[in-house]
Amino acid sequence: MSRLARFASIVSVLFFALVVVFFVLENQQGATLSFFGWSTVELPVSVFTLLALLVGMIVGPALGAVLGRKRIRQKA
């Protein structure tokens, strides 16, 4: 990896981390979620949003891998 690409990667990661920190600091008001009769304890809005982001980052690629395997099987 060239020095410029490494520098750009580091700057991108640091920028993303800074945006996340600002987001968390700006969204400290409490909220509870209710879903099908189940409700959570009161947590900051940023916690729920970051959890949704993490779940999406896990579920999205997993679903893509499952669907990709299904397409390969259909072609064969």
TrEMBL record:
UniProt keywords, alphabetically: Membrane, Transmembrane, Transmembrane helix
Residue intervals passing through the bilayer: 7-25, 45-67
Keyword Membrane: yes
Name of the protein in its database record: Lipopolysaccharide assembly protein A domain-containing protein
Lineage: Bacteria, Pseudomonadati, Pseudomonadota, Gammaproteobacteria, Pseudomonadales
